Amino acid sequence: MPTVPDPRRGDVHEVTPDQPPLLRLLADAVDAADWDRATDAVRAGWYALVSDHADGAREIFHRVPVSVLRQYPLLAMEYGILLNQLRFQRLRPLRYFAMAVRAARSKRNHDLRAVDRLLIRSSESAGFRLLGRTDMSVSAARASMELAEALTDEERASLTELPRLYAVLGMSFYYGGHHAEALRAASLGLAEASLVPPSNGMGPLALLAGIHALRGDLANAREHIEYGRSDLWTDRQRDGYSGIFYRIAESVLALEAFSPEDARARLDSLYAMTRGRRTTEHWSLLAEIDALIELVGGHPGRGLARLEEAIELRGGEGGTKRARARLARIRSLLHLALRNPDGASAVLARDLPSGHVARIERARVALSLGQTGTALNELRAVSGAHLSTRQTAEVAALDAAVLLRVSMTPRREAAVQRLGSLLDRSGLRLPLFLLPAPDVARVAGALDEAGFAHVTAGLPPQPLLGDVEPQDLLTKRELAVLEQLMHTPSIARIAEANVVSTNTVKSQLRSIYRKLGVSSREDAIAVAMERHLFAEAD
Asked: What is the C-alpha separation between 478 and 32, in angstroms, rounded?
């Protein structure tokens, strides 16, 4: 087999005839110590080296001296990304990241090409996103957008993966909560995509479809999904990593049509082509959709179990504040479906204490508990806020449900008209079906009378959220006793802590055991933990 000598070490390396051209180009440049040519190779295969040839690329980069990496920041960043893929090597690439980022941020480094600076800063944005540093990720993404917009036509043409780069930046904006900027970045990426199949624009196309679907802009989502089904793209792209948001969009649309089987098939095709829920950075979003599929399919218990399994698979990352906040809404919905509003409330209090989403979900819990005043107060707090189409429809559905319970004024009719118009125009149906069981029928009937029968047509006969019986809910005093019971079995100590008699505690314990369906302290504690009745204890 032919060999090429390494002029720096005096040893040799094999060159295999079937080696991919990109790796062969990089290997030749490294073995010749031609670092400018090596940088050209990395620039041309920035994403392909990491996604398609990682093992071979790491072996080649291992032959690059650290002194060279300090002088060529693009090589340092690519090597750092490649090392970061190795589970037990993730501390090592930090110094390479730091080398590259310092060079890219420095305005005095005039030797660094604009294209290289852009590649490094976009990778910086992705790195901070993976570390959960969303503010720094968004900052780097904005700097990258400025660099991208300042590229000359020649520089732009040299970046064959510019669409994918825009998708990376769009992802950083999305997870940073800046959806308008995410959509803009993805739109710019799709505009740069090749029109020769297979197109290199699946990343931005998928992101556009997914964000629109998640935000409730179903018409836009459908338009991008249909475009993604054209011959420009392959099933491998749709089911691969770059197509994750595409399959998410399809799943969301299937759920809006109350077809959990179709939604499950979309996710399963994705898991079959990728490494599943265990490795992707989008694990929490996939876990949320996965659990929602079980909820719509009428299996909230299984949905909660699958959600906890996904969290467990992520190890320490699954228990971070960021991860818990992202999954608080679906976890709360699952508890409501399991007739456990106390658990839903505890999850929201622990994991999602503030923000528009928290207020909407607290209003839903309050409605489940019959606390119409509290629900109205939570809904008023988001009045006038900038909400997505989906959030606006959910607020309208909850508002109509509350008013149909308590109000005989014209405002009730206006609320029903508003809800009907929103559902009619958007095509959304889940916001109506995510109401407490008694309210679904009540609101659907009011919509029928208001001329929106077509909106309620096709609703499943079985509501998603369980009907909570007030007599089965623990009172505040019972919750206080149960919390003390977790720390001590002594009735005397519980009575002393709650400033009541021991007979009162005994009576409250009998009521607690009956409501929880248990007969012992150990079982009561287990059920309390399972239902998330005490957020801090969890």
From this structure: 76
| Cis-peptide, bond into residue 198, ω within 30° of zero | yes
Q: Kindly give, in sequence order, each residue whose CB lies less than 8 Å from that of residue 449, ignoring residues fewer than 6 positions away.
A: none
Reply yes or no on whether the pLDDT at 260 is more than 90. Answer: yes
**Structure confidence by residue, pLDDT tens digits, 500-534:** 888 888 888 888 887 776 778 887 787 777 666 66
pLDDT at 12: 38
Residues 451-465: what's their mean pLDDT? 89
Residue type, 239: D
CA distances from 140 to 80, 119, 148, 158, 262 (A): 17, 11, 12, 22, 38
Buried b (16+ CB within 10 A) or exposed e, 390-412: bbbbbbbbbbbbbbbeeeeeeeb
Quickly count: other Cβ atoms within 10 Å of residue 288's Cβ: 21
For 50-109, the pLDDT digits (tens) are 888 999 999 999 999 999 999 999 999 999 888 888 866 666 788 888 888 888 888 777
Quick check: helix, strand or coil at residue 532?
A: coil
Phi first, then psi: what are they for 431, rounded to 5°? Answer: -55, -35
Amino acid at 347: V
* Least confident residue range of 191-205, 314-328, 454-468: 454-468
Residue 61 has which token pair? 């980069």
**The two three-digit tokens of residue 445, written as one number:** 């009937």
The CA-CA-CA angle for residues 175, 179, 181, to 5°, reads 105
CA 524 to CA 220: how far, in whole Å? Answer: 49
SS3 (DSSP) at 461: coil
> Which of these, 39, 127, 135, 118, lies nearest to 84 by C-alpha position?
127
Q: Which residues of 480-513 are buried (b: 16+ CB within 10 A; e: fewer)?
A: bbbbbbeeeeebeebbebbebeeebbeebbebbb
φ and ψ at 12, to 5 degrees? -130, 160
pLDDT at 7: 34
State the pTM of this model: 0.82
Q: Residue 402 in contact with residue 375, Cβ under 8 Å?
A: yes
Q: What is the C-alpha to C-alpha distance for residues 326 and 220, in angstroms, rounded to an integer?
A: 24
Any idea of the CA torsion for 357, 358, 360, 364, to the nearest 10 degrees?
A: 130
Q: What are the tokens at 393?
A: 């429809």
**For 209, phi and psi rounded to 5 degrees?**
-60, -45
Neighbours of 249 (CB within 10 A): 29
The residue among 496, 466, 468 whose CA lies nearest residue 480 is: 496
